[in-house]
Amino acid sequence: MRRLGLLLCVGLLFAAFPSEALSEADLDRIWRNNGAVEGIQAFRFGHVDWAGRSVSVEGSALVKDGAPQSRLLARRGAALDAQRKLLLLLYEIRYGLPERLRSIEVSGRVVEGHVDYAAVEGDRYVLGVTLPLERLFDECVLFDATVR
Question: Residues 57, 46: contact at Cβ < 8 Å?
Fold first, then answer.
């Protein structure tokens, strides 16, 4: 019984961490499957710079009033929105999306990217995030997705 528990723990440990990074051939295949666009390609949920090997998304959240607490909450909401968009972009790159998309729900694990800019624009807090393409594929994991 102890041995089974140990094997289960080791299996979960290996499942939590990817065994190897994507090769250059894998990235090239993903690029070709998405239209082989040179340079920066716009997707519904973000942009991919195939030459620079990075992805960028923009998260936003409503700032309710001018109080500092509202700005902090809006920044947290914008960061969560950016993480959600990274998962959505990962799904879109891997599987594509139908032309007529009513809704999409994803759940998964995403890593934090580099914050490029953060600003209040009108009544919204906007946060721009960039993540290396390899980290998106190697470290972000989709658990479940529902597309309608």
Answer: yes
